[in-house]
Amino acid sequence: MASGYNAKEEDGHRAGAAGPGESASRSRKPDNTAFKQQRLPAWQPILTAGTVLPAFFIIGLIFIPIGIGLYVTSNNIREFEIDYTGTDPSSPCYNCSQTYSWNSTTLCTCTLTFSLNQPFEGNVFMYYGLSNFYQNHRRYVKSRDDSQLNGDLSSLKSPSKECEPYHTNEKPIAPCGAIANSMFNDTLELFYIDPNETRTPIPLMKKGIAWWTDKHVKFRNPGGSNANLTAVFQGTTKPVNWRKPVYELDSDPENNGFINEDLIVWMRTAALPTFRKLYRIIQKKNNMTPTLPRGNYTLEVTYNYPVHSFEGRKRMILSTISWMGGKNPFLGIAYMTVGSICFVLGVVLLFIHHKYGNRNNSSDIPS
Amino acid sequence: MFRKRPPPEEERRVRANDREYNEKFQYANNCIMTSKYNIITFLPVNLFEQFQEVANTYFLFLLILQLIPQISSLSWFTTIVPLVLVLSITAVKDATDDYFRHKSDNQVNNRQSQVLINGILQKEKWMNVRVGDIIKLENNQFVAADLLLLSSSEPHGLCYIETAELDGETNMKVRQSLSVTSELGDPNHLAQFDGEVVCEPPNNKLDRFCGTLYWRECKYGLSNQNMLLRGCVLRNTESCYGLVIFAGPDTKLMQNSGRTKFKRTSIDRLMNTLVLWIFGFLVCMGVILAIGNAVWEREVGFLFQSYLPWDPPVDNFLFSAFLSFWSYVIILNTVVPISLYVSVEVIRLCHSYFINWDRRMFCNRSSTPAEARSTTLNEELGQVEYIFSDKTGTLTQNIMTFNKCSINGRAYGEVMNIPGAQHKRAQPLDFSTWNPLADRDFCFYDASLLEAVKVGEPAVHEFFRVLSLCHTVMSEEKSEGELVYKAQSPDEGALVTAARNFGFVFRSRTPSTITTQELGKAVTYTLLAILDFNNIRKRMSVIVRTPEGRIRLYCKGADTVLFERLHSCSHDVMNITSDHLNEYAGDGLRTLALAYRDLSEEQWAEWAERYRGADKAIDCREDRLAAAYEEIEQDLMLLGATAIEDKLQEGVAETIAILSLANIKIWVLTGDKQETAVNIGYSCKMLTDDTTEVFIVNGHTVQSVREDLRRARERMMESARTRDGGKEVETQWGGACSLGNGFSSGDAANCVPDQEKCAQPQAPPTSVLESISGEFALVISGHSLAHALEADMEQEFLETACACRAVICCRVTPLQKAMVVELVKRHKNAVTLAIGDGANDVSMIKTAHIGVGISGQEGIQAVLASDYSFSQFRFLQRLLLVHGRWSYLRMCRFLCYFFYKNFAFTMVHFWFGFFCGFSAQTVYDQYFITLYNIVYTSLPVLAMGIFDQDVPEQRSLEYPKLYEPGQLNLLFNKREFFICIAQGIYTSVVLFFIPYGVLSQATQSNGVPLADYQTFAVTTATALVIVVSVQISLDTGYWTAINHFFVWGSVGAYFTILFTMHSSVLFNIFPKQFHFLGSSQNTLAQPVVWLTIALATVICIAPVLAFRFLKLDLKPQLSDTVRYTQLVQQKKWKPGGRAGRRVGGIGGSQGGALGRLGRGGSRRSGYAFAHQEGFGELITSGKNMRLSSLALATFASRHSASWIDTLRKKKHNPHSTPPTGDSSPAPSLGPPLSTSSSLTGPPEITQEEAGQTNSDHTPSKSLSEPSDVQPNVANVAQMETGGCSLTAQETALGWKAAGARISGASSPGPPTIAEEAANGE
């Protein structure tokens, strides 16, 4: 790239044209260092039968037990799922799903009954699941203002442009953006029906369902923790689809405003269009009785959230949990499969190596 | 660049000593600027230049796309950070380059010169010298500008210059001032000088100048002969004055330094093609996803608007799809990462440094390290298939040594050939004791010759007297007894030096006398005439009057010519001498015969009269002179003959042997005559006695050349057929071959043929001829080549030549050299390398894919044009087999991995597209996308690209076959590329769907689902980083500490940065920028996530591992086997790593002697009279010496630029026939230089003279004549060197043994080759 002429070269400073002034004192001999001579000490691993085959066997031997363990653990987890979308005319929620509009003032409720065949022990987690809901759509994902949610007062009053079109509704919207606007707002209540037909409400914990970092760092109410939220949110307006403003989400001041955990959970967008989010926790009782004994239950749904328009589905899920989380047969099966394949591959390679491999018997070098 | 250029000059007018007048024309001053920028212009100009690169513009385009909010799928910094990084790295590099250019400019511009201002000599900086100034130059000074020589301290306004820096020729040239100006000796007169020069505008023709001097109402024509060009050095001249005609950028030196043609490697071209394909792929992906987007928006997105309304400008799904296409183009652009080109540059730069740093390519003698002058071609060094080599100075040292002689029928200097005399040989004769003027560097071993001199044998005395008198050497005696000879050709210098050491010292000459010191006694001969050399006469004579008053003619010349002119009484001597000459010729020595003739006064007077008549003749002067010379050179008395060895460079034969084992074909292109070239071919083992047949193509007409080529092919086919009959022989050979990899030094050459025979059938035959595996050689001469290179015959020629194992083109012009290279380059689709040292090789060096310059005797022109330079031919094997091979390997591995990692990284987005409504949502965090290519994965792959080695350097020299994958392009080609891509896509599938499968249902151990976007992103990114790190670990074959550091460091850096980015500290400062608060802590604390990552890693790597193992186990490459063998050896022989080094030492330093011993001695030599017209005329032309325009034209034509021009012309006008046509002397049609010197002979000679020091004209003489003599000579040789055949057998045995040892796989490192032993310290 450089121009072919270099003034220095005219000088005769080049190799071979040593001028009279150039003495041999300054040796141009390169340094004899391992680095410059490319002789750095190095480890040169080679794939030999002695290393590759054991690797396959070891992988197989490790993965298969892990897979079995995962599978067994996963199978021991109780999980119950009920779809309450109400697309089917026979479904109790059919009416609600059909007549719903955002503007209706009357609440539509429906009741579903179900029975658990096995008792659920330990803490039971209650999820709502949505299908065909694209929380991972690019425009959806970016339509939020983290600064506002972090309690920044200026962002509260002038939300980020990213929130468009849920940016202002005459007044700035708090919280702004499509995510917050579409917050899941069905109310789910669970009742245990005794064999003698009495309905016992099951206490649902609404706290402790969000990430600690979200609750305590990422989401903050404007104006500090003990300010009057109503005053703080003065001058803003609720998201279009919301029924209540953000400072009325809960009566508990520790769970109200931006630090309302339902909001926080919703704001943590899902990676896939079918997802579940933690809704409530059913704490285990102190005594020996299971958290949810086997029997009949009713689920009372205050049907606020329309999914009919885009063929979405809504589900309620109850699940127990283990050290590795909820029910997840995929991982166990995958581990067992991969482990087995590796082991078989090891055997096949061993066979091939013994039958056809030419490494051990002849190490001569073909021309 | 920004300076306003004045309109192009029509002509240049310069008035001496008149600055005001000259200023009117605004000529450039003498300040040169090779730098491109200054501080202010650097940024804009450099950026402008950088954005001319397509890649950079592309990324700029992406950046602009990202500014559109509807399209922007990545935040702005993901593109701008890498772009800025790339731009700044390049800018820093450019800035440093330019800084050094500034520095050297400054240094040159600030040199002092003496300028005559107002009659006083003043010191001025070079940059302040103006056109029209008169400057004074002193001896050994560089010429500051293009000057018109006005006067000089030497008589007749002569001055001597060395033009090595300009055209690479080291011999001195003469320049002469006009006689009118030469009288203006002193500054006072010169200050009055007000002549005006009108001349051509600045141009780049080094050998031409045309102008007129107007002074005192008179016109004087000016030619190049009056010019001193910038870049020359004044020699042997005390001082001179010159008028500045062209200054600074207008000088011919600067006009010649155009931008060099940018060479690209085949990998480069492949890479560019692949990048284009990837762009195509990118567009396809974009289209698929855009269609998906259209469908999705219509089917789902339209309905989903209650929660996610369309953007205001988007009113239908098609527009959305259009925007989505661009969004995906932005996201997926990482398949062609901007860092690819930068990384490739960095790797190449490092490889170049490794070449520069290599101590084994450092020449101790000249203190020259190897130099990679171009940093862009390294990996191509690993793919070379054809080497085109110059002979003189490249294969040979261009050092002539007086080796043997035959005086009056007795041969001297034979000591060497006595078997077992190797120890005695170590002591050369000591001349200094009895001859204080002896040259210490001169070596001669035969004491009997010295005895003969001392005893006073008249023939011996006369013999050396001829050598000391009959030449055109100039002597320079700096101090008493310290003689320096300046010879036109090294042969002549060697002869005169020989005479000097044997007591006949040539001391000084004047135009009419020669002073010598004969055995300590000063003798002055009166020089009556010099009958100078030319190519047709092939001899030169001097006529001297001895102090005793006798007139004698001394003649030396080619024996064929001289023997015809001998007196009948010399016939006995002639017969014996002829035998000796054959012997010498067989040894590859250059021979000359010497003779004398006594003249009577009358004969002299009569002849002198005719001579003067001829000399004064205006037309046909040349012919008439030749006729006059012919007349007097009769009835000569033969004295004897000399034999000069054209010393081969160290290790040439070994290098050639190893390179041809590596399947590299070596063609020698030389300006030398056929016989010399063939001899050198034998002595450097290109031709051996095993060579079945040497085809000589020497025809002068199209028909005869075609016929020759056809016959050659027929013979080849025939011999192939006969060999097919003898299959057994073939297999036997094959068996021997399989053992043949572990040869060691000395026997190397012997196994060449066998290797070749084995190798040939393996290579895929491109034509029938190619598959012929014969031991054939083709020798073609320049005039035949001119026909062979014509469009209708070139294919034929190429096929024939490529079927031969050795090709020697002799008497070729520089232009033809380039054409041959071009031919092979064009039709063979192979990588070519040209190596040479002289200005005549420049065209070939520039034409070939890789040009290598030998920085040796002949100046630096070749080096300046080359891509690599070093000082010894033998370093070539290291350059190719070690550095080239490694570079190729590293680059291929680098590219494979690089494409793999980016596909694995990017394609995840494609799969994710199907789950996020084709909305161009990224899978990863934006910062991860930004940093993936520049931080997380760049350094390990760079380290691999820089340091990786598959086998140690000794091994790649031991097993030249290791070089083959490069030639066949096996390591990185389209197939390999697709494999990499497939592997990358497979990895991306695994990396997306495994987390998808696991996380879609999984929850944390506290019940919170894991399927949120951020967890998914962190899991996939971590899995990706780990998978590609494991993959690079698998790819890295040579784990130095640096590799460890980079691989572990990258993974460490990933986690460090991950946790930092997700920390609450950063979030609290920029809540809008760091959305991923706490994700890593939450995610990576989950065992499920780690299980997922482990699962993904195993699924990605296990198939690769299995596949590689199978490939290694079932079909190991040679390098794998060598590696494995080495591993086994290391286990068995822990300490003894470098044993057997000494074994290789036989070759190397003693190569020359051994080489000659080993030769069959059955070839009749050429009578190499490597000579050219010298200073003869200059010397004799006496007081009113008008420099003969003819003689000087010869000098003038010996410039390089002219044939560069020719080449250029050639390229512009491809239909013109090669200039070296038949004998039709049509100077006007020929290249420019032939006009100036065409009178000295047919055009092809003059062309050759342009570059060749050793040139001679052979009339069409085929080698069939010598081959008649062959049987006799062969017998003689067999008798004389009886051990020869035995030696060959022995070496063959030894070689087999070496092979056997290797097959045992237990030998402690087979003996390394000679080069190592010779050079290693």
From TrEMBL, chain A:
<keyword id="KW-1003">Cell membrane</keyword>
<keyword id="KW-0968">Cytoplasmic vesicle</keyword>
<protein>
    <recommendedName>
        <fullName>Cell cycle control protein</fullName>
    </recommendedName>
</protein>
<keyword id="KW-0445">Lipid transport</keyword>
<keyword id="KW-0333">Golgi apparatus</keyword>
<dbReference type="GO" id="GO:0045332">
    <property type="term" value="P:phospholipid translocation"/>
</dbReference>
<feature type="region of interest" description="Disordered">
    <location>
        <begin position="1"/>
        <end position="31"/>
    </location>
</feature>
<feature type="transmembrane region" description="Helical">
    <location>
        <begin position="330"/>
        <end position="352"/>
    </location>
</feature>
<dbReference type="Pfam" id="PF03381">
    <property type="entry name" value="CDC50"/>
</dbReference>
<keyword id="KW-0472">Membrane</keyword>
<keyword id="KW-0812">Transmembrane</keyword>
<keyword id="KW-1015">Disulfide bond</keyword>
<keyword id="KW-1133">Transmembrane helix</keyword>
<dbReference type="GO" id="GO:0005783">
    <property type="term" value="C:endoplasmic reticulum"/>
</dbReference>
<keyword id="KW-0813">Transport</keyword>
<comment type="similarity">
    <text>Belongs to the CDC50/LEM3 family.</text>
</comment>
<keyword id="KW-0325">Glycoprotein</keyword>
<feature type="transmembrane region" description="Helical">
    <location>
        <begin position="46"/>
        <end position="72"/>
    </location>
</feature>
<dbReference type="GO" id="GO:0005794">
    <property type="term" value="C:Golgi apparatus"/>
</dbReference>
<dbReference type="GO" id="GO:0030658">
    <property type="term" value="C:transport vesicle membrane"/>
</dbReference>
<dbReference type="GO" id="GO:0016324">
    <property type="term" value="C:apical plasma membrane"/>
</dbReference>
<dbReference type="InterPro" id="IPR005045">
    <property type="entry name" value="CDC50/LEM3_fam"/>
</dbReference>
TrEMBL record, chain B:
<keyword id="KW-1133">Transmembrane helix</keyword>
<feature type="domain" description="P-type ATPase C-terminal">
    <location>
        <begin position="863"/>
        <end position="1116"/>
    </location>
</feature>
<feature type="binding site">
    <location>
        <position position="670"/>
    </location>
    <ligand>
        <name>ATP</name>
    </ligand>
</feature>
<feature type="binding site">
    <location>
        <position position="671"/>
    </location>
    <ligand>
        <name>ATP</name>
    </ligand>
</feature>
<dbReference type="InterPro" id="IPR032631">
    <property type="entry name" value="P-type_ATPase_N"/>
</dbReference>
<feature type="binding site">
    <location>
        <position position="492"/>
    </location>
    <ligand>
        <name>ATP</name>
    </ligand>
</feature>
<keyword id="KW-0479">Metal-binding</keyword>
<dbReference type="InterPro" id="IPR008250">
    <property type="entry name" value="ATPase_P-typ_transduc_dom_A_sf"/>
</dbReference>
<feature type="binding site">
    <location>
        <position position="590"/>
    </location>
    <ligand>
        <name>ATP</name>
    </ligand>
</feature>
<dbReference type="InterPro" id="IPR006539">
    <property type="entry name" value="P-type_ATPase_IV"/>
</dbReference>
<feature type="binding site">
    <location>
        <position position="817"/>
    </location>
    <ligand>
        <name>ATP</name>
    </ligand>
</feature>
<feature type="binding site">
    <location>
        <position position="390"/>
    </location>
    <ligand>
        <name>Mg(2+)</name>
    </ligand>
</feature>
<dbReference type="Pfam" id="PF16209">
    <property type="entry name" value="PhoLip_ATPase_N"/>
</dbReference>
<feature type="compositionally biased region" description="Low complexity">
    <location>
        <begin position="1223"/>
        <end position="1243"/>
    </location>
</feature>
<feature type="transmembrane region" description="Helical">
    <location>
        <begin position="1016"/>
        <end position="1034"/>
    </location>
</feature>
<dbReference type="Pfam" id="PF13246">
    <property type="entry name" value="Cation_ATPase"/>
</dbReference>
<dbReference type="InterPro" id="IPR018303">
    <property type="entry name" value="ATPase_P-typ_P_site"/>
</dbReference>
<feature type="domain" description="P-type ATPase N-terminal">
    <location>
        <begin position="14"/>
        <end position="80"/>
    </location>
</feature>
<dbReference type="InterPro" id="IPR023299">
    <property type="entry name" value="ATPase_P-typ_cyto_dom_N"/>
</dbReference>
<dbReference type="InterPro" id="IPR044492">
    <property type="entry name" value="P_typ_ATPase_HD_dom"/>
</dbReference>
<feature type="binding site">
    <location>
        <position position="556"/>
    </location>
    <ligand>
        <name>ATP</name>
    </ligand>
</feature>
<feature type="transmembrane region" description="Helical">
    <location>
        <begin position="316"/>
        <end position="342"/>
    </location>
</feature>
